[in-house]
């Protein structure tokens, strides 16, 4: 990232705090655990104007989600990072490891006593907050129906904890049901407990 190594030279203390929030937090729209990413670690990758207007959290699929700092804004931004140099700077083939361009970069970093970090490309999209909240609420409702089903059929003990992967699959179910919570919930209730247990143990 453009900010350089997060703990190189600018920080004498190597310890740091990691801030996370569960998917049950109302502001979290990812349906998984999110990790807060300070703006300073995204400088040079995400435009400064977005760093000022949004707070960024990384979801379990490594997608950066920028939530608006100011209430009333209708959108959030998502940032997908991929390894490799941008075509503008490196040409269509990018910077190939071991190539002259790659070796020149490494030599320049060594001469400057710097840390070589792999370049990356950021793809930024705006997403309507209203649509994302509606989607989250639909999925949460179906997950609640799943919890009730599992509890009723005594298929689990203890506290129900929905994983990020399960939440994503429930999202796929809701999409297949034409975004109808009622239809998706009926599909959950139609599952045969014996069949479910057989697949789980198999």
Helix content: 25-40%
Poorly predicted sequence stretches spanning 5 or more consecutive residues: 87-94
Major β-sheet profile: 6 strands, antiparallel
Count of separate DSSP helical elements: 7
Strand order of the largest sheet: 1-2-3-4-5-6
Supply Rg. 22 Å
Average pLDDT over all residues: 78
Shape from CA axes?
Answer: elongated
Keywords:
202 residues; alpha+beta; 7 helices
Account of the 3D structure:
It is a single chain. By secondary structure, the protein is an alpha+beta fold. The protein is 38% helix and 17% strand. It is built from 7 helices and 6 strands; from the N terminus they run E-E-H-E-E-E-H-H-E-H-H-H-H. A 6-stranded antiparallel β-sheet has the order 1-2-3-4-5-6. A hairpin with a 6-residue loop joins strand 4 and strand 5. Helix 4 crosses helix 5 and helix 4 runs parallel beside helix 6. The chain is elongated, with a radius of gyration of 22 Å. The termini are far apart. The relative contact order is 0.11. About 4% of the residues have low confidence.
List the helices and strands and how they pair.
Layout: E1 20-21, E2 34-37, H1 48-53, E3 54-58, E4 64-68, E5 75-83, H2 87-90, H3 100-111, E6 120-128, H4 129-152, H5 164-176, H6 181-189, H7 193-201
Antiparallel strand pairs: 1-2, 2-3, 3-4, 4-5, 5-6
Helix pairs in contact: 4-5, 4-6
Give me a quick take on this structure.
By secondary structure, the chain is α+β, with helices and mostly antiparallel strands. It is 38% helix and 17% strand.
């Amino acid at each position: 990232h453009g900010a350089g190594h997060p703990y190189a030279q600018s920080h004498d203390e190597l310890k740091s705090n990691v801030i996370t929030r569960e998917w049950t937090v109302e502001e979290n729209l990812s349906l998984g655990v999110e990790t807060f990413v300070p703006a300073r670690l995204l400088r040079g990758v995400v435009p400064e104007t977005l760093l000022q207007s949004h707070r960024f959290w990384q979801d379990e699929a490594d997608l950066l989600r920028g939530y608006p700092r100011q209430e009333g804004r209708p959108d959030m931004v998502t940032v997908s990072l991929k390894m490799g140099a941008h075509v503008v700077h490196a040409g269509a083939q990018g910077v190939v490891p071991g190539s002259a361009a790659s070796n020149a970069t490494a030599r320049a970093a060594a001469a400057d006593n710097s840390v070589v970090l792999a370049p990356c490309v950021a793809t930024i999209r705006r997403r309507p907050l209203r649509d994302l909240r509606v989607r989250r609420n639909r999925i949460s409702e179906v997950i609640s129906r799943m919890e009730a089903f599992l509890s009723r059929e005594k298929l689990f003990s203890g506290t129900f904890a929905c994983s990020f992967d399960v939440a994503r699959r429930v999202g796929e179910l809701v999409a297949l049901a034409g975004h109808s919570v009622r239809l998706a919930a009926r599909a959950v209730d139609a599952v045969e407990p014996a069949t479910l247990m057989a697949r789980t143990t198999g």
